[in-house]
Q: What sequence folds into this?
């Protein structure tokens, strides 16, 4: 019963524990700020390979933007939630609230 | 290594129910906000206590002086020590909180330079004032008690207004207002007003941060 409602109402891209953690973490930053891949990885506790897979899915959906900056010999990858990603998380939060209110 | 909470650890959405999702979302959001917060409530409350101690000690050392002379030599290291400890704690925590973050939130080098120049100028100006024969009430009382808050507060408010960060701008203006109010209390009373005013501002800020993290 619960699973059926969930799959219909909740954004399947966000409704995965790891991706929910990624999106919620990035949403805690002010709009316009970016987070380094390394710090995000430390906060989420994933291997780089696993994190990249999830980031790619969110990026393909337009929820997340990645950028690479080079400072001398060091290359840094930064990630940020897009406006579309913030909207999707807000909708997901509303859907969760509605679902839990119904349950 | 710090990791986000793992209330629900299903690897995909199949076994992940809405209750687990809501719990994980709340926990992760709270955790991330704490990690990104450069002014945690505990630090603000500690600073409030230290401000009361330091300014209180300065006030106790001058309240019986008629005419006003200056804070006693034994108290000045307390004030300087608290000030230095405050700057070190603030910079350390701000650096840790903003590690890996880039964008609007970080102060630009020019903004840091302006604030450093303003702070330095406020204290350096005491010397020429003393040499020029300005009264002790001003040089060792009203000016060092109130000018850091008024001038640095207004400079901070201007920088934050340019960034359209109205919350931080309001904090700068509030600090300047406390400084201006303290000026009216006279050279001895200014230390007490600053101590109480700064402590209140810091406690209000701590409450605001706590509420924001829980929202």
A:
């Amino acid at each position: 019963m619960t699973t059926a409602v969930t799959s219909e109402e909740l954004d399947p891209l966000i409704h995965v524990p790891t991706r929910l953690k990624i999106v919620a973490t990035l949403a805690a930053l002010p709009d316009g700020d970016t987070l380094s891949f390394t710090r995000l990885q430390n906060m989420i506790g994933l291997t780089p390979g696993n994190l990249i897979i999830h980031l790619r899915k969110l990026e393909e959906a337009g929820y997340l933007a990645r950028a690479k900056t080079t400072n001398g010999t060091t290359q840094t990858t930064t990630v940020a939630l897009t406006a579309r990603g913030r909207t999707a998380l807000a909708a997901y939060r509303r859907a969760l609230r509605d679902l839990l209110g119904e349950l | 290594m710090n990791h986000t909470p793992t209330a629900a650890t299903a690897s995909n959405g199949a076994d992940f129910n809405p209750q687990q999702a809501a719990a994980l979302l709340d926990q992760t959001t709270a955790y991330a906000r704490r990690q990104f917060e450069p002014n945690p409530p505990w630090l603000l409350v500690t600073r409030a206590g230290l401000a009361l101690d330091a300014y209180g000690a300065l006030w106790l050392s001058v309240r019986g002086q008629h005419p006003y002379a200056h804070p006693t030599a034994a108290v000045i290291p307390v004030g300087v020590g608290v000030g230095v400890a405050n700057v070190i704690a603030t910079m350390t925590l701000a650096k840790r909180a903003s590690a890996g973050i880039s964008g609007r939130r970080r102060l630009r080098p020019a903004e840091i330079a302006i604030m450093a120049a303003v702070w330095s100028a406020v204290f350096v100006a005491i010397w020429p004032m003393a040499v020029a024969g300005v009264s002790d009430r001003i040089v060792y009382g009203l000016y060092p008690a109130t000018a850091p808050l008024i001038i640095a507060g207004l400079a901070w408010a201007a920088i934050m207004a340019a960034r359209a960060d109205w919350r931080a701008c309001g904090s700068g203006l509030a600090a300047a207002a406390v400084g201006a109010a303290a000026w009216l209390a006279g050279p001895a009373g200014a230390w007490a007003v600053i101590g109480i005013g700064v402590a209140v501002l810091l406690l209000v800020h701590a409450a605001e941060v706590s509420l924001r993290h829980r929202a």
